[in-house]
Amino acid sequence: MAGVTDLPFRHLCRRMGAGLVVAEMLTADHRLWHTRKSQLRMVHADEPEPRMVQIAGGDPQMLAEAARLNAERGAQIIDINMGCPAKKVCNKAAGSALLKDEALVADILNAVVQAVDVPVTLKIRTGWCQDSRNGVTVARLAESCGIAALAVHGRTRADGFRGEAEYDTLAAIKAAVSIPVFANGDIDSPAKAAAVLAHTGADAVMIGRAAQGRPWIFREIDHYLREGKLLSPPPLAEVRQLLLEHLAALHAFYGKEQGARIARKHVGWYLAQQPGGQNFRKEFNTIDSAEQQVEALSKYFNHLSEITEVAA
Ligand SMILES: Cc1cc2nc3c(=O)[nH]c(=O)nc-3n(C[C@H](O)[C@H](O)[C@H](O)COP(=O)(O)O)c2cc1C
C-alpha cells in the first residue's frame, strides 16, 4: 500500500504473523526512480524473504524493464498493480484502468512474465464497473499468461472504496482458475477472514487498512484459522512497546525530520483504539522533533497504564 507499507511497517507485519508482505507500489517508469520517494520504496535491507515488489504502469515494455531491474536488485516476486483506482495512476492508463482493455492486459502480462525468472503475480479488482465485472476473464487471461498468483479486491474500479466489498465474484474467480487466489477487501477480523475464505474458497486473505495501527491482526487471524479460537487483544504494555519500536524504526529509516512527519499517521491509527487517543493525537501532531515524539508517547502510555490499573 502506497504511503503505508514501507520497510519499517513491512518488518513489523512479518513479525506479527503476516505470511507475505508487498512493498509500496513503484512506478514502472524507471526515469522517475531517482526521486527520494522511489529510492526509499526500493530499499529491502534485511527484509524477510520473499521480497515482493509491486510495479504500476500501462506500457508493456516499460513494465517488463521495471520488473527486470527490480529482479536484478533482489526482488523475488514481482506483482503488477491492476487494482489501483487513483486518478494519478488511471490518467496514465495504469492500475485498474487497464481492466477495461483486455488485449493490453495480455500484452503487459506476457511481457513481464517473459522478462524475469522470478514469479509474477497480479493484483486486480473484480472489474471495471458494476455492469462490467470482467474479473473472471482477466483471471483466466492471467493464468494463461503465466501469472503465478492473483490477488482480488472485491470492488470494481468504479466503486473506489465506496460500499462494501463483495465476495461472489471472488468465488467465481477462484473457481475459474487453478493458480492461488488471495481474497481482499474489508477483511478486518479473524471471523471475517474465516467467513471470506469459506465463501470464496480462496487460498489466502490479503489485509490492507485493518492492519494500520493494528499489525497484530495477522497473528490474530493466523491463530483463529489454525486453532478456531480468538487470541486476547495485545496487552497495553505490548502495544506501547510495538508502537515505540515502530516509531524508532520510522525515525531511523526516513531520518528524524521526515520520519517524525510520517510517524503521525501511524501513531494516529494506533491511538484511534485507545482511551483519550483522539485528544492526545491532536497534541502529538504539533510535535516536530523525533525525541519529543518518543517522550510524549511514553508519557501518554504511562498515564494510560495508571488509569487502567486504577480501573482494575
Ligand atoms: C492508503 C492506501 C494505499 C494503497 N496502495 C495500494 C498499492 O500501492 N497497491 C495496491 O495494489 N493496492 C493498494 N491499495 C489497495 C489495498 O491493497 C486493498 O486492495 C484495499 O485497501 C482493500 O483492502 P482492505 O479493505 O483490506 O484495505 C491501497 C489502499 C489504501 C487505503
TrEMBL record:
EC number assigned by the record: 1.3.1.-
Reactions that this protein is recorded to catalyse: a 5,6-dihydrouridine in tRNA + NAD(+) = a uridine in tRNA + NADH + H(+); a 5,6-dihydrouridine in tRNA + NADP(+) = a uridine in tRNA + NADPH + H(+)
Q: Which residues form the DUS-like FMN-binding domain?
A: 1-300
Q: Which UniProt keywords apply?
A: Flavoprotein, FMN, NADP, Oxidoreductase, RNA-binding, tRNA processing, tRNA-binding
Which EC class is the enzyme in?
oxidoreductase
Record-annotated residues binding FMN?
54, 123, 184-186, 208-209
Q: Which cofactor does it need?
A: FMN
GO MF annotation list: oxidoreductase activity
Sorted alphabetically, which InterPro entries does this protein's record hold? Aldolase_TIM, DUS-like_FMN-bd, DUS_fam, DusB, DusB-like, tRNA-dHydroUridine_Synthase_C, tRNA_hU_synthase_CS
User: Catalytic residues?
Assistant: 84 (proton donor)
Q: Which family does it belong to?
A: Belongs to the Dus family. DusB subfamily. Belongs to the dus family.
Task: Check the record and name the HAMAP family matching this protein.
Answer: DusB_subfam
Stated role: Catalyzes the synthesis of 5,6-dihydrouridine (D), a modified base found in the D-loop of most tRNAs, via the reduction of the C5-C6 double bond in target uridines.
What's the protein here called?
tRNA-dihydrouridine synthase B
Q: What is the lineage of its organism?
A: Bacteria, Pseudomonadati, Pseudomonadota, Gammaproteobacteria, Oceanospirillales
